[in-house]
Amino acid sequence: MPQPGAILIVTGAITACAVAAVFAPVAVLRLLFGATRLDQLTIMIARHWALLVTLVGGLLVYAAYHPEVRLAVMIAAIVEKLAIGVLVFASPWRRRLSAATVAGGDTVIALLYIWILWGGRSP
Questions:
Q1: SS3 helix, strand, coil % of the chain, rounded to 5?
Q2: Angstrom distance (rounded) from CA 40 to CA 94
Q3: Nearest CA-CA partner of 113 in 85, 83, 76
Q4: 3-class SS at 121?
Q5: pLDDT in tens for each of the 123 residues of the chain?
Q6: String of b and e for 71-87 (b: at least 16 CB within 10 Å)?
Q7: How far apart are alpha carbons 67 and 122 in whole angstroms?
Q8: What are the structural domain ranges in the chain?
Q9: How far is Cα 61 from Cα 57, in angstroms, rounded to an integer?
């Protein structure tokens, strides 16, 4: 199994891809959720959400090189990633392949982090 640092770099970079929604929130919301009628408030909230997720991705990459913050960053990422999984899979959007793929991927990453922290290698 790869070292935890390598896993954090790869999964952090994937997570940081949410930056696309900072600059193109309408396109991302259409792609992921099939949203067609978006008001300015929804767009602003989507941009803010995307920025926060992007920052989590950046922190994951940072934590790959700074073991002293790794536990806290991984716990925050676990919560963020499990939350999107629960929110999507408990909603009608679970039937939308793109949303379910993102939620499923984040859930798998969260479970991988849990395994690293509590069942696998030490961070």
A1: 85, 0, 15
A2: 25
A3: 76
A4: coil
A5: 568 899 999 999 999 999 999 999 999 999 999 999 999 999 999 999 999 999 999 999 999 999 999 999 999 999 999 999 999 999 999 999 999 999 999 999 999 999 999 876 555
A6: eebbeebbebbbebbee
A7: 10
A8: 4-119
A9: 6
Element (H, E) at 84: helix 67-89
Neighbours of 109 (CB within 10 A): 23
Q: Is the distance from CB of 64 to CB of 86 less than 8 angstroms?
A: no
Separation of alpha carbons 103 and 109, rounded Å:
10
Residue with the two structure tokens 């499923």: 104
> Rounded distance, CA 16 to CA 26, Å?
18
> pTM higher than 0.85 for the full model?
yes
